[in-house]
Design brief:
Structural class: mainly beta
Mean pLDDT: 88
Number of strands: 15
Largest sheet: 8 strands, antiparallel
Strand content: 25-35%
Distance between the termini: 42 Å
Length: about 325
C-alpha cells in the first residue's frame, strides 16, 4: 500500500491588493517624458468590463501613457513600502483595453501593458527609459512586430525574438508576434456588450494571439536562477535573474507604455485605451505551506494507510488452553 501526498501548492502570503479601498496613498507612480495617468480606484464596470475572475468587486488600477503629448513615453507604479526577495510569485488579473474597431484597432491602439520585478520603485520602467528590473510586456491589439516581450538591463532593453532560451515560443524570427501559433489560445475577442453599447466603434473581434479585451491571470515566478512569466498558465518567457545587472531594488511594478511617439487622435482614447490590473497577490515560495485540500489528502492518506494495515495484518492467536 502506497501513501501518496500532494505537494504544497502555494506559499506564505506576503502582500495582497484588490483596490476595493482606495490604496493611492500607499503607491508610488513614476512617469516617463510624456503625459501619463494612473487611477488606482477605477470602477471598470463603467466601461462595461466584467468583474475579474479572482475577485468580487469591480475596482482596479487603470494605467495610461502618451495620451496627447505626442512624445514616446511610459509609466509604472509600485506599492511604496513593499520589497520582496528570495523565491516568490507575483500573481494578478490583467485586462488590456483597446480602442476599436477591431481587429486593426483605432488611432494609436498599439500600446503595451507592462509588469516586472526587481526595480527600485523610483524610476519609470518603459522601453525607452532606464531599465533597473526584469520585466515583461504585451500589446493589447496584437498589431506590433513584437507583441509578447521580455526586458532586462542587459538585453539590451528588449530581448530579440532570436535570443536563446528566453521565449517559450522559440528562438526564431517571429516568436514574439501575436500571429505565432504558440499564442493561438489568446485573442479573437469582442468588446464587452456594455462597452459596445456606449462606444459604437468597439465592433469586430481582436486578432488571434493578441492579449486585449479579456481577463488573464498572470504569474511572475521569481527563483534563485530565473524569472518566469506565465499568462493563463502558459509560459511566455524566462529571463535569467542575473540579467538584472542594475540591481537597484526589490520592488514590483505595473505599468503602461506607448510603442512610439504618436499619440492617439481618437476622441475616446482616454476612456478606451489602458491597462487594467486587479487582485494582486505576492506569495513566498520559500516558506511553502499546504493548501487546505492538501491537508485533507494527507488526512485521507493516513486513514487509508491505517485501514490497510488493519485489514492485512493477521493477528497472532494463542494456542487453546489444555482441557
Amino acid at each position: 500500500w502506497a501513501l501518496v501526498v500532494a505537494a504544497p501548492a502555494f506559499g506564505a502570503p506576503l502582500y495582497a491588493e484588490n483596490f476595493e479601498i482606495d490604496p493611492s496613498a500607499s503607491w508610488t507612480v513614476n512617469g516617463g517624458p510624456s503625459d501619463h495617468a494612473a487611477n488606482l480606484y477605477f470602477d471598470y464596470s463603467t466601461v462595461g468590463i466584467p468583474v475579474a475572475p479572482s475577485g468580487l468587486g469591480s475596482r482596479g488600477m487603470k494605467l495610461q501613457a502618451n495620451q496627447s503629448s505626442g512624445v514616446f513615453g511610459g509609466m509604472s507604479a509600485s506599492p511604496s513600502a513593499m520589497s520582496f526577495a528570495g523565491n516568490y510569485t507575483v500573481a494578478f488579473d490583467w485586462w488590456a483595453n483597446v480602442n476599436g474597431p477591431f481587429p486593426v484597432g483605432g488611432s494609436g491602439s498599439t500600446q503595451l501593458s507592462t509588469f516586472g520585478v526587481g526595480t527600485s520603485g523610483s524610476v519609470a520602467q518603459w522601453p525607452g527609459g532606464a531599465q533597473d528590473s526584469i520585466w515583461f510586456a504585451a500589446t493589447g491589439d496584437g498589431n506590433s512586430g513584437s507583441d509578447w516581450r521580455a526586458y532586462s538591463p542587459t538585453a539590451p532593453t528588449r530581448y530579440a525574438d532570436t535570443a536563446p532560451g528566453i521565449y517559450a515560443a522559440g528562438a526564431a524570427a517571429g516568436s514574439t508576434n501575436a500571429s505565432h501559433a504558440y499564442y493561438s489560445g489568446f485573442g479573437s475577442n469582442s468588446a464587452p456588450a456594455a462597452q459596445l453599447a456606449s462606444y459604437a466603434q468597439q465592433t469586430g473581434t481582436t486578432l488571434a494571439g493578441s492579449a486585449g479585451m479579456e481577463w488573464h491571470r498572470v504569474e511572475i515566478v521569481v527563483s534563485s536562477l530565473t524569472v518566469d512569466w506565465f499568462v493563463d498558465s502558459l509560459l511566455i518567457a524566462t529571463v535569467p535573474i542575473g540579467d538584472d545587472t542594475a540591481n537597484t531594488g526589490n520592488k514590483i511594478f505595473f505599468g503602461h507604455s506607448d510603442t512610439n511617439a504618436t499619440s492617439s487622435t481618437d476622441v475616446n482614447d482616454s476612456a478606451l485605451l489602458f491597462t487594467l490590473i486587479d487582485n494582486i497577490s505576492v506569495t513566498d515560495r520559500s516558506a511553502s505551506v499546504p493548501e487546505p485540500g492538501t491537508l485533507l489528502l494527507v488526512a485521507l492518506g493516513l486513514a487509508g494507510f491505517a485501514y490497510s494495515r488493519r485489514a492485512t495484518v493477521t493477528p497472532i492467536r494463542s494456542s487453546p488452553a489444555a482441557c
